[in-house]
Design a protein that fits this description.
The chain contains 14 helices and 23 strands. The protein has 439 residues and is of the alpha+beta class. The strands form 6 sheets. Strands 12, 15, 18, 19, 22 and 23 form a 6-stranded antiparallel beta sheet that branches. A 5-stranded parallel beta sheet has the order 3-2-1-4-5, sandwiched between helices.
Length: 439
């Protein structure tokens, strides 16, 4: 990287979930040995780096913190601060940041904006119709074929998508979003899309203008229950690589989706420097885009980062500095899996403050904290819906899954809940036999 700016000596990670814990660990492991801070963090993160009680959506507070701590680089985890313009404000303050400005973050904040960009540039995606009032939406829903997908246009914490098998289900979803305000301003507009069939996969792309580097593939498990049953969540687990994406298919995805997406964003006048998360459906007609996110995925990040041999700090810094083309990603061939341990009742009503006891960890297994805190007695307790992520790396996915699930079973927490089939599709392909549950 001749002529590149030296790596930063201090890094602030914004956010307080599992994704941020994974980022903190990877950045702290850099050979550059940076001072890593986090805001607001959680109980697991604060055991490893200094945390500051500044909320991820407190833009003024985060800028003040970065200045007060002489931070040389900021890595933004969640989508909300990006949508609120944190990257813009940091840029104005002269502080380098990894994460798009507000114009780029709109590709996640508005599914309608993304759909228009995809269709304008001929990037494969589902046909869709947009509505901002209930009656026209209901008329359309009563006249179309099913299944169909109803999406809240704006941010909905990964829960604003309903795959409706019938008009009744679709109408109920539309009423919740447009009439009852289930997602607040995020549901003032909705998209009704054709339902795509196939297998989903996630591709995270580090983007710097028109340059990009594709991270290893991963597959998330969105629904709460085994066998992909129940409501959508923020993600109940992931594994990497998603071997359903063969080398030839990955080449096609890059040619038909990744390169055109990066070029389309740049052509729109957006200087995008951050992660473009491309949600894909692998249909019989080829790969199609389900959504864009504009930050690292959660829990995909927890399964992807342990596989990187490259220095994550160097990669993200190069993207922010516009020198990404000089970086080559190196990846460990061993697969990784992340099993999310949630609070029973998530994504609806669930208890907080339930004590957690963590067991001794075997080699190549780690516990990522997503929503943990300390009570007045100093006990580790649950503090949200998705509480922990158990991550394992091994020569085979079956071995990684066995390691992760053994630790999941040993975690002491009265309200713990986790799926028992993370990675089951891939394990079935690997073994040639049906898998329903792993543990």
């Amino acid at each position: 990287m001749s002529g590149a700016a030296p790596l930063p000596r201090s890094v602030l990670v914004v956010g307080g979930g599992g994704r941020e814990h994974a980022l903190v660990r990877a950045l702290a492991a850099s050979p550059a040995r940076p001072r890593v801070l986090c805001a607001p963090g959680n109980a697991g993160i604060e055991a490893e780096v200094r945390c500051h009680a500044v909320a991820a959506d407190d833009i003024d507070g985060l800028v003040r913190l970065a200045r007060a701590e002489s931070v040389e680089f900021v890595v933004v985890g969640p989508e909300l601060p990006l949508v609120l313009g944190l990257a813009d404000r940091l840029g104005e303050a002269g502080i380098p940041v990894y994460g798009p400005k507000a114009d780029g973050a709109q590709l996640e904040a508005s599914k309608l904006a993304t759909k228009k960009l995809l269709l304008r540039h001929g990037i494969p995606t589902a046909a869709a119709v947009a509505f901002d009032s209930l009656d026209p939406a209901l008329a359309h829903l009563r006249s179309r074929a099913y299944p169909a997908v109803v999406k809240a246009d704006g941010l909905a914490a990964g829960k604003g998508v309903v795959v409706a098998a019938t008009a009744t289900e679709a109408e109920a979803a539309a009423r919740e979003m447009l009439e009852a305000g289930k997602f607040g301003s995020g549901g003032r507009h909705i998209l009704v899309e054709d339902c795509l069939f196939g297998e989903e996969t996630s591709l995270l792309v580090v983007v710097s203008g028109r340059d990009y580097a594709m991270l290893p593939t991963a597959q998330d498990h969105k629904r709460i229950g085994d066998g992909d049953t129940g409501p959508n969540t923020g993600g109940m687990g992931a594994y990497s690589p998603a071997d359903v994406v063969t080398p030839s298919l990955l080449e096609r995805i890059e040619r038909e989706i990744v390169r055109p997406s990066v070029d389309a964003i740049a052509a729109a006048g957006i200087d995008f420097r951050g992660t473009l998360f491309i949600g894909l459906m692998l249909t019989s007609d080829g790969p199609k885009v389900l959504e864009y996110n504009t930050r690292f995925g959660d829990p995909e990040t927890q399964a992807i980062l342990p596989r990187l041999r490259s220095d994550l700090l160097r990669v993200l810094w190069a993207a922010a500095q516009g020198t990404l083309s000089s970086v080559r990603l190196e990846v460990n061939d061993d697969p990784a899996i992340c099993v999310v341990v949630a609070a029973r009742g998530y994504p609806d009503l669930f208890a907080r403050g339930d004590p957690i006891e963590l067991p001794p960890l075997p080699p190549d297994v780690s516990v990522i904290h997503a929503a943990t805190a300390r009570n007045q007695a100093g006990q580790l307790v649950t503090a949200g819906g998705r509480v922990l992520g158990v991550v394992a790396l091994a020569p085979t996915l079956a071995q990684a899954a066995a390691k992760a699930y053994r630790v999941c079973s040993e975690i002491g927490c009265a309200s713990k809940y986790y799926r028992h089939d993370i990675g089951a599709r891939q394990l079935a392909r690997d073994s040639g036999r049906s898998w329903t549950t792993i543990a």
